[in-house]
Every structure is written in C-alpha cells, then in structure tokens.
Specification:
Elements: H1 3-21, H2 24-27, H3 31-35, H4 41-44, E1 51-56, E2 59-60, E3 64-65, H5 72-81, E4 86-90, H6 93-96, H7 100-109, E5 115-118, H8 124-132, E6 137-141, H9 147-159, E7 163-168, E8 184-188, H10 199-206, E9 214-218, H11 224-232, E10 237-240, H12 242-245, H13 250-268
Parallel strand pairs: 1-4, 1-10, 4-5, 5-6, 6-7, 7-8, 8-9, 9-10
Antiparallel strand pairs: 2-3
Helix pairs in contact: 5-7, 5-13, 11-13
This protein binds indole-3-glycerol phosphate.
InterPro entries: Aldolase_TIM, Indole-3-glycerol_P_synth, Indole-3-glycerol_P_synth_dom, Indole-3-GlycerolPSynthase_CS, RibuloseP-bd_barrel
Catalytic activity: 1-(2-carboxyphenylamino)-1-deoxy-D-ribulose 5-phosphate + H(+) = (1S,2R)-1-C-(indol-3-yl)glycerol 3-phosphate + CO2 + H2O
GO molecular function: indole-3-glycerol-phosphate synthase activity; phosphoribosylanthranilate isomerase activity
Length: about 270
Amino acid sequence: MSILDQIIDDTRELVATRKKETPVQELEQRPFYTDREPLSLVEALKSRGMSFICEVKKASPSKGVIREPFRPAQIAQSYVKHGANAISVLTEPNHFQGSLQNLAWIRAHVEDVPLMRKDFIIDPYQLVEARAVGADAVLLIATALDARQLRHLHQAATDLGLDCLVEVYALDDLDKIDFDQVSILGVNNRDLNTFEVDVDNSLRIFEHVPRNVGRVSESGLSDPATLVRLRQNGVNGVLIGEHFMRAEDPGQALDDLRNEAKEIAMQQA
Ligand SMILES: O=P(O)(O)OC[C@@H](O)[C@@H](O)c1c[nH]c2ccccc12
C-alpha cells in the first residue's frame, strides 16, 4: 500500500471517530464558524511578484520530526511579520504531527493573513471542522480523490466560503479537474510514493493548465534561482515548509529567500 493510501485509510477512521465525538451541529456553533468571514486565498495569490504560502509543519513521513521545539503561533507570527501571503497549517496528526488545535491557536494570533488547512480531505465534515477552527482555505489532493468527490468537496468548500488549493502530482490528475470550478492549482514536486523531488514536474504540468488559473509550485523548494525560474515560467506562488522549519527564525528565512531571489532576477534583467 502506498503511503498516500495509508494516510487516507487512517484519515477515514479518524473522521468516523470525530463525527461521533463532535457532531456537525456543534461545530457550526463555534465562534469562528458563526462570527468570522473567511479571507480569500485566491486574492492573496494575485500579487505581482511571487506569492509565498509558508507552511507550519512539525514532521513529515519522509523526514520525521523537522522542528523541535515546535511553537506554531510563534512561527506563524514570524511569517506574518515578514510578509507571508498565506500560511499553510498541517493538521494531520498521525504522519505529520499536526492538529486542528494548532490551526485554532494560530488563528487566535493571526487575523488578516489567510490560513489554509493542510490535510487529507475526503469528507465534507472536515470542511466544517476547518471553518470551525478559523481556516480560510483548504487543500484538496486530486490524487487521493476521484473526479466526482473532487467536484463535490470543492463545491461544499465554496458554499462554506473556503477557497481551495487543488493539488495534483501527475499529468493524468488533470483529467479530474473542472477548470470552470478550480481557480488555484498546485503541483506537488514531491512524489508521495518515492519522496523524490522534481521541480520540472510542476512546469511540465502547468503547460496543460488554462492561463487564468493561479499556479502554485509545492515542495522541495529552497533555492532562490529555482524560484526565479518558476516565476519566469508563469508560476504565481510557492508552498514552502521544510526550508523555513529548519531555520531558527522561519520568517527571517522567508525574507532572506525572497531577497536572494530578487537579487538574482535583477542581475538577469
Ligand atoms: O516542506 P516542503 O518540501 O517545502 O513542502 C511543503 C508542502 O508542499 C508539503 O508539505 C506538501 C505538499 N502537499 C502535501 C500534501 C499533504 C501533506 C504535505 C504536503
């Protein structure tokens, strides 16, 4: 069984348990659900230069624990201070040591930068959970869903006011996507089975994506020259976790990377 299949199986079990513990009706009464309007991830990715979606992630299946001690609110505040366009928060507990509490905690400290729930979304219940802890957007992994599920979950998210970043890995994942519906597409540079990273994978796939769709390149990014190349090829945003998580001050690392990329772009102009 592939790691993705394993995570999806675990998630299915987890969702079943959660549904029993906390019914939807209860989630719908949480203050973030009733009193807060979600921010737009789509808008956050429309800046003229490269947009940065900065990730808060303690561990991953490929790398084990990446950051210890792990202080989610402090990390997020540092990202905000240094101009992150959006923040991605891992909430998957078994393989990434994430939690919904982490997202709620970050929301309590970050008001006006969009937060994306990064998890393995397979059930509309998880979208309500996302709203209830103060998320503005969710990741939908096309590789883990069929076309019907993807369309359904995307619509349910939209109805709740949540933007979706739809993630693909391979060219044939695009067959599942209705581009009248999907406005931001992420390509994961990391093969979830072999964990190998290939940045050119995202560029190849974006060639087949309509021009009006926002493009995000995800995973394995840390080299400023690569960011410049991605931007020159029409990529609007990057999703970066590990590189920032390994830095003492993640926001400072964002600043440094952005400045190094600017410098390279200027030298080339
Ligand atoms: O830490 P990295 O290599 O910068 O990658 C971040 C992000 O792209 C990665 O965490 C990710 C991309 N898609 C996912 C789906 C599920 C879990 C995690 C991910």
